Each structure stands twice: as C-alpha cells, then as structure tokens.
Amino acid sequence: MKKISLLFLAFFLLSSTYAQDMQLAKWLHQKPQGNTLRAVDMFDNNNIYAFGTFGTFMKTSDGGLTWKFNHQVGKKSATGYYYYTIYDAHWFDMNTGIAVGEGGIYRTTNAGATWDSVYNTTSAGASIYQVYFVDNNIGFAAGVSSVKLLKTTDGGLTWAATGFSAAVSCYDIYSDGNLVVVSASSGNIYRSTDGGTTFGSAISTGTSVSLYKITFKNPLVGVVAGGSGSARLTTDGGLTWNSINLGLPSTDTFYDIDFINDDIYLTGDSYALFRSINNGTSWDTVSFLAPVAQQPWTSAHYATDFYNGNFVSVGAFGIINKRIGEIITHHTYFIKPGQLNDVWKDPNSNKIIAVGAPAITGSVFDQIMISTDNGVTWSFATTTKVGNKAIYVDPVEDIPEVKGEDIKTPNSYSTFKTICMLNSNVGFIGGSRGAIYKTTNGGSTWDSLITSIPNIADIYKIDFLNDNFGMAFSNAADTTNGTVFRTTDGGVTWTLHKIPTTSTSNSRLYSGDIVDQNYAWTTTYQPRPVKTTDGGLTWTVQTTSDGYGGFLYDIQMFDTLNGVMCGGSGRFYKTTDGGALWQVIPTGTTSITFNALSFIDVNKGMVVGSNGVIFQTSDGGTTWDISTTGGPSIYGLYLSAPSTIDSVTAYLVGLNTSIFSMKSGIVPVELASFTSSVNGNTVTLNWSTATETNNFGFDVERKVNGTWNKIGFVNGSGTTTERKSYSFTETLNSGKYNYRLKQIDHDGSYKYYNLPEVIEIGLPVQYKLSQNYPNPFNPSTIINYSLPSSGNVSIKVYNIIGKEVATIVNGYQEAGNYIRQFNASENGLSSGVYFYTIKSGSFTDTKKMVILK
Predict the structure, then answer these.
(1) What percent of the residues of the chain are helix, what percent strand, and what percent coil, each to the nearest 5?
(2) 826, exposed or middle or buried, with CB in 10 Å at 0-12, 13-18, 19+?
(3) What confidence tens digit (pLDDT) does each residue in 517-545 have?
C-alpha cells in the first residue's frame, strides 16, 4: 500500500453515477466498487470491461461515467455463500467472451449478463490464472498444478488437458498454434512445438521467482515477468532468456506485459507503468496517477489494456486509472485504506460515521470517516485532547488518580473499534491504547476524555444508557482480571470492575450491551456471556446450550429477559430467560464467522461476517435469508430504528475500508388484518399491512374441491412503513368457501396468509333473475339468478322474433345462488337485441340483452 500524499485536500466525487445492476449492497466506499480488479479489456475509449475478486464483473460504455455490475461471475465458494475470484478473460467481441478464475472456466454470449460454466476444476477453489486464444477456435488456459494446462479447439465450449505433465503451477501461456510457451513457478519456462501435445523439460530463465505473465511480440521475441522485479527477454522463441531487470524496482511484482508496437510495458507498480523502447536495455515510466485531490491513495495494479496508444490500468481496492493522451482520469473514489470496525447512521439526517484503523500504522487523522450526504462523499473528523484530565478510579484503593501526560497524544494513533451515538450530536468512540473520545457536534470533532485508563485497555465496545451512565469493554488480557470500565458522570470518571474468568486471557471482552441501570451483558474470550444485575459492580458468568469453545463477538439484549448473541463457526444464540439458558439456533453453517449483529426487535435482525456474508431473519432465527455484499468481510453493522423508511436500510463496514448500504429486507410485509364480509352472494375481502418491503402484490386464492385456485391479483405498495389497505370482491353461488392471500416479493419469494374463517353464502328467500353484466357485451356476459327451492331450471335465449337461439341452463338444480357465463360467439350470434328467459316451477322472468360487436 502506498500513499501519494500526506495532505488530505477537499475530496470530491468524480462526476460519475453507478448503475447498481446485480448489487444487493451498494458500495458507498470505495466507488464504483472496492473489490480488487485482476483483468481489464479496453475495446475503445468508452467501452471497458473488468474482472476481479468475489466474482466481480463491471463494464462501462461511456468511458467510466457510469458502470454496470455483475458480482455473480464464476463459481460459488465451497460454502456456497460468495463467488470466487476471476483472474483473466478473453473477448471474441463485445458480447462473447471467456473468463477464468478459481474453480473453472466460464463463457458468456450476452456481454456478461449471464455466464455458463464450461469447465470445472477437480477442486472447488483450484485457480486458473490466464487464458490465451490463438484464433476464434484454439485457446489455452493455465492454472495450478492440479489443472496445469488446458486446451480448446471449439472457441472455449469444451476444454481438455494437454500433454503438460510437470508437477508445477502454470501461470500464463503464449502460442501461435504450434509453439506453446508456458511460464511457471521457480522461474521456469516450458515449451511445446506440437500445439501442446508434448513438452520438453523445464527451461530456467535465470531466476527462481514465480513468473506470472508471458507475452510475445512474435514467435521469437517475448518477455516473461514476475516477482522481485524480475523480467526476462527471449529472442529465440523461449529457448534462452536474458535478464532485463536493470532499472526495475526489486520490490515490484509484475502481473501484466503488453507489447505496443515495439515497446514493452510492465504492470504491477502502484504509480506507473514501466516502459522500454529498446527491448529492456533501459526503462522509463508512464504515469497513470491523477492529481492528489482526486487520487490520494494508490496500490498495486494487476492488469492494463491499450487502445490506439491510450490505456486503462486496474488493481487493488477496485482502482481504475485511464490515460487518454496526456489526460489521466481516476475512476475510483478511495480516500483511505485500512479496516473499518463500526458504523453509525443518523436517523434524522444523511450523516454516516465509520470508525476503524489508521491507513498506516502510527499515522493519524484518518481513523474516523464522516459523510453528510448519505455516503456520496467522505471526509475525516479530527481528534483533539481536552484540557481537563479524566479521572481513573482504582476499585481496590478507591483513590482517584490522574495518569501520566504521555499516555495520550493530541491526535490519536489508536485503532477505533466502536462508536456509540446517544443522539445526532453527542457520542463516544473507543479503541486501542485505552482511547475513548467524545463528540458534541455530530462527529465533526472528537475530544479525548480519557488520558489515564491504562494503555493496555483495548476498548472493543462502548455502550451508554444515557448522558451519564456508560461502560467500556476492553479486549486486553488484563493481569488484574478486570476489563470493564464504568462511568456515571458522562466519562469524567471511570471505575474498573472485575470479570470473573478462569484465566487472564479469558478476561478479554468482545462486546457488551446495557439494558438499564442494573442489567448489562458482555461476551468474553472464554467464550461465555457474562451478566450483571447491579450496574456492573459484580458479574456472573453464564453458559451456552452447546458449550461452544470458539469466540463470541457480539451481543444485543432487548430487555432483561430476551437477547441474541453471535460468534464464530456460524454460532447464533437466543435467550428468553435473562441468560439462564442461551440456546443455540441453527444457521445452517459452520464456515462463516459472525462478527456483528443488529436487531430491531426480537424477531427481525441481521447477522454479518466473513466474506461479506449476510444472514437476515424475520422470525428470530427460525428461518434465514442468506445473501452477500459481494465484497470482503464485514465487521460493523448498523440497522436504523423502524420508525421511518430508512429503517430498512442497513449500513455495513469492513476490510479494505469497505462501506455498504443495502435495503435490509427484514421489515417484511406484515399483515395487520385480514377480514371478509358477505352481502347476498357477493363476498368482499379486506386486508391491511403495517409495513411492506419489496412487495410486488397479492394473489387472491379460493379453495375449490380441495384445491387452491388463483382468482385475482392486487398490486402491492413496494416498500413502505405506512399502513396500506386492500380489498377484493367477487360474486359466488351458495356454499362454503376458504380464501387465502399469496404475498409475492419482487424477487419472486412469497408467503401465504389464510383467512381465519370459512365464508358461507346462504339460500335465497325468493326467485330472482338479474340483469346480465356487462350489457351491451362482446362476446361474454354474466347472468346471476337465485332459486329458493330445488327443481328443474331452464334459461334460454331468444332473438327479436321469438326464435330460440341458445340454451344456458336446462336441468335440475339445488336451491341457491348461481352465476353463469354466456358467450355469444360460441353460439354463433351476431350483433343485435336478444331476450333470455328463466323458468323454474311457476316462476318465469325475462330480461333483454344486447350484443354489440
């Protein structure tokens, strides 16, 4: 990681917008996304495609002003929760391409919208690093030792092993059809002169490093490069190699090589491409860095592609740099590297605050990121040391003591682990070196409250009940066996309290939650939940139902009885009795570490963790909706209160200063009521929702002869926290009926709601023939009639001169209400006036109908 400048000027977002195609979680930092990019293709100055980690594919058709994404390229991980890395790609045109990566080879014919697997490695995560095509039919793919070298002769539809048999990993290939040259580990090259059927022994290039890239200008002249600044040149088709390292930094690793005319370009450095115009005798640099105000940070670049002398280069943190002539454009909004550990969103404004580690160990100023426009732009808050020293109270001696001045510095070097905001203005953060800071202006500046808590205290969690009462939970292995600091005066004084544990190491705490002045919980390294009922003065260790021996990373209590807790190996726990029993709730995984959780009530919440995996539940963990950010591991989570539409937005932070927002989906369609009414033989269903998320609408279903049938559809309201009312009406024969609603989300998921009662339509008290509806009609109309007594029934249709032209009913019927549909076309009737007559017993009635075609 390299920093371009220590000066942080006013940061602004480049005039870009980002189409969030196939992105459940929206990147707020970095932008347009932050996954490392390993491959890039530049079709022209406007059309650029790139691939990277977590199955990332992104493309632009307007030179980088807007981007479209697909974070589901390639193979899912062995756990099935996220996608593996894509390392390289070849495009036959802008629609048809081949991508290679961990787990296999994939093909698209629709410009990357969807991908088909055309080759799977024997091991789920076995990597294929590079793909090379001689023409539209013949191609090669190089990979780890279990894959070695593959070949296709049908444009990538099928792949088979070549004659390469050396027990090494292959990193890249060149071929002209007959000559095949492969770069490998330990500085070796392998050659075939029969299209890959047989290979000779290893050819040493004079270095022992892995050679990640090989490129030929023609079948004789080629360059291979890799680690430790190594670059080698051949002029005899790979038989012999000469060093061309002079002038190349030994700290660089080169991942890409381009021949542009006769010039050689090497990619891998964080600042520039290395270029040689004399076959490697000497090297100069071609910068791709934008001005510092636009690009304060850079890192290793992995791939470059050229078009008409212009180029685009991509790398770590999703960095995209484009050079058109002398104009350099930095397409990535990226103000700092490092890990973020916690996040808070102001429910009353567009402010977001994220806290974490400094970009460089020992640096200052950039541990607190703040946005006032909901993540569009970011800046840094400042930390200062206040004049009045906080007082640390030793619980043994009970003597207030002010520690040395050198424990804290005006600008903190600490890694911040936690943020607790009491309201839109007042809040606290804490971290390593015993640091606790307070803001009273909404996070713009933070003042050091504590200058005397020992440096060994590593504050992992701060929680305040009100302006005065709070606790700081330390993860340090404290030799005094006490790692909770308590304040009752807003941080002016702090008291150390002991946690009873079996060892010094087990005194380390990962999280904590205060319920009221008496009750609070924390989680220890042991791992066990620990409870206090006297405001933190004494603590009692609790147990878990499964005796788990890993780590418990987060805990949240809703009241003194109900709470949830999460940790490693997919562990999630609930208690309904104040922790007397912490019952493990199955999540279906042991491979995901859950680092944080946030619940808006005992049922609805989210648990996040390694590899960006997200578990959501609306029923307290009975069922889980599993998704991913499409990015790295998540360490911090904030889910806003359910009083506004923002309540369904989650904010997540983690590795590589990744910050996401996403519609959480944990405020489901909640049916507040579902009732019915009957008027004659007309049934009306009424229902209302308390909240809706992603609601496409409702299928109305009725049970007929034991089978549910869809009889109608009512549109939903999408996402809303306002109460919404709906209704559906139909006319039926006499009988008993069951109804239910099938609520459908926009993603196709659904849930059923049954009407609690059975609807019964009774017998009519008199004969009745209703006017058909609609009238006039074409070609169908509805006729309703009522029979108070059972008997033979006849309904016939006559033309204007009295001739019978159709029969609707003719036979015995039980007493009841009836509905019949009449179709004029099926009876061959033309436009005109007709009459329909009912006869049953002594009852006769006639109505007029009009067919209008």
Answers:
(1) 5, 50, 50
(2) exposed
(3) 999 999 998 899 999 999 999 999 999 99
Instruction: Measure the CA–CA gap between 232 and 276, rounded to whole angstroms.
Output: 13
State the Cα–Cα distance between residues 273 and 287, nearest whole angstrom: 6
Per the CB < 8 A criterion, the answer to whether 757 and 835 are in contact is: no
Structure-block tokens of residue 803:
């001739």
Q: In this model, does residue 766 exceed pLDDT 80?
A: yes
Q: Is the pLDDT of residue 317 over 90?
A: yes
Contacts of 159 (CB under 8 A, 6+ apart): 105, 118, 119, 141, 150, 151, 152
Q: Phi/psi of residue 69, each to 5°?
A: -130, 155
Distance of alpha carbon 336 from alpha carbon 506, whole angstroms: 34
pLDDT of 748 above 80: no
What's the CA gap between 380 and 338, in Å, rounded? 14
pTM, to two decimals: 0.75
Strand pairing category for 170-175 and 180-184: antiparallel
Q: Give the span between the Cα atoms of 435 and 416, in whole angstroms.
A: 8
3-state SS, residue 185: helix
**Is the separation of the CB atoms in 634 and 612 below 8 Å?**
yes
Concatenated DSSP letters of 402-463 = ---GGGS-SS--PPEEEEEESSSS-EEEEESTT-EEEESSTTSEEEE--SSS-TT--EEEEE
CB atoms within 10 A of CB 521: 25
Mean pLDDT over the full length of the chain: 88
